[in-house]
Each structure stands twice: as structure tokens, then as C-alpha cells.
Amino acid sequence: MAKLKLISFKICPFVQRSVILLKEKNIDFDIAYIDLSEPPEWFLALSPTGKVPLLQVDDKILFESTIISEYLDEVNPPSLHPSDPLEKAQNRGWMEFASSLYMVFFKIMMSKTKEAGAEIILEANKQLNTLEKVKINEPWFNGDKFSMMDISIAPFFMRLAFLKQHFNLDLLEGKPNLQAWSDIVMGRKSVINSVVDEFEDILLMRIKGAESFLSLT
Ligand SMILES: N[C@@H](CCC(=O)N[C@@H](CS)C(=O)NCC(=O)O)C(=O)O
Q1: Which of 13, 76, 97, 137 could form a cystine bridge with 155, CB 3.0-4.6 A?
Q2: Partners of residue 55 on adjacent β-strands
Q3: How far is CA 202 from the centre of its chain?
């Protein structure tokens, strides 16, 4: 069995995906947290992109969260992807779509004015309405079976719940399919245990530090 070490930043949603998958599959791993505002030399020497997550597999390095997920899924059967190749490819497309949502959350968090915030919220709603129409199965994305796509979106749902709780910004309002999906995803043990205790405090500090419009409200 390979020795796994995940290099993480405490509020990174992409790392969180790896953590959820590792927990879902009961895989043993070590985790090291770095500060991305002052990345250590050893990290920069290991990471081709300067980004987390990195997964050390014995003495080899993997980077890019989707590649890390695909590797972990493949070497730890049974797969959390649908077995039908067409369905699997469709799911992978939606996983890419989910990845783009994290940039939207980041932009909301970093918008300095209400106008800039409103513009990005409009963009977020457009993307979420697209997903609302696609989420026809229940309760998970593919129906009865929890899958990679549910993991892909989980950190985003956690951030939406955070926006609702702390800033009264509810991007799932009027989107019943996504709301029900978020509820079940957020209740999953691997998801609940995928962040550090101080996760919300760090996010709140980040928002304050960025002088985001969110902290004006
Ligand atoms: N496409 C990458 C995105 C990873 C990413 O953007 N990570 C952020 C933290 S959440 C990062 O390391 N940023 C540092 C930087 O851009 O220099 C993945 O899926 O792994």
C-alpha cells in the first residue's frame, strides 16, 4: 500500500474534494497544511503549478484535484463513477462545470463593491440555474449511488451554506433541486469531516481582509 501525503491549504475547496474522497474510501493519509501567502520552499520545489492540492504517493507527486481524484478512485475500487462510459463522460463534464463554480465563489468573496458583487451573483445564478435543470435524479446526482460528482460539488455547497449563514446571501433560493441536493450532501459524514474546525473563522477573516462587499452588509 502506497504512503499518501496530501498538501493542503485550510480553506481550499479543491483540496477538500481529495479529503472527501479519501474519507469516503477509508484510505489512510497524512496531511500537511501550508500558508499559500507564504508558500514554503519545499512546497514550491515539489509543485509544478504552485497550487494545492498536491498528493505525494510514496516518492511521486500528483497535482490537479481532478487527476488526484481519478487516481484515488482507480486504485481503490469500487469506483465512485457510473460504470457506463457515456454516463461517466457526462459526469466528468459536469465535474468540470462544478470546478468553474469555485471561481465564482472566490469572486463573490473578493468583490469590493455591491455593484461588482451583484454582477457576479448574477453570473452565479445563471450557472446554478443550468445545474438546477440537470439535477433530475434523487437524492444524489446519479440517483441512488453517491458518486464523484457529489464530491465535486460538496465544497461549493458548504461555501453557499456559509454565505447564507453569515451574510444572508442565499444562492439556492428558488432552486429546490439544488437545495435538496445540498442538504443531503452537507449531511454526509465525509463532507462534514472534510474541513478543519477553524474553517469558517478563516474564511470570515479572509473576507474581512479583502474588504469584500459582504462585510459591508
Ligand atoms: N485546477 C486546480 C486548482 C487548484 C487551486 O486553484 N488551488 C488554489 C488554492 S484553493 C491555489 O493553490 N492557489 C495558489 C496560487 O494560485 O498561487 C485543481 O483543481 O487542483
Answers
A1: 13
A2: 6, 62
A3: 16
Q: What is the pLDDT of residues 101-117, one digit of tens each?
A: 999 999 999 999 999 99
Residue pointed to by grid coordinates 463513477: 81
b/e code 84-103 from CB counts within 10 Å (16+ = b): eeeebeebbebbebbbebbe
Phi first, then psi: give them for residue 61, nearest 5 degrees: -120, 135
* Rounded to 5°, angle at Cα 195 from 211 and 117: 30
Query: pTM higher than 0.70, yes or no?
Result: yes
Calculate how far, in angstroms, residue 58's C-alpha sits from the geometric centre of ligand 1.
22
In DSSP terms, 4 is beta-bridged to 57
Domains of the chain as residue ranges with CATH: 4-75 (3.40.30.10), 85-216 (1.20.1050.10)
Report how far ligand 1's centroid is from the alpha carbon of 198 (Å): 20
Residues at CB less than 6 angstroms from ligand 1: 9, 12, 14, 36, 50-53, 64-66
82 and 33 Cβ atoms separated by less than 8 Å = no
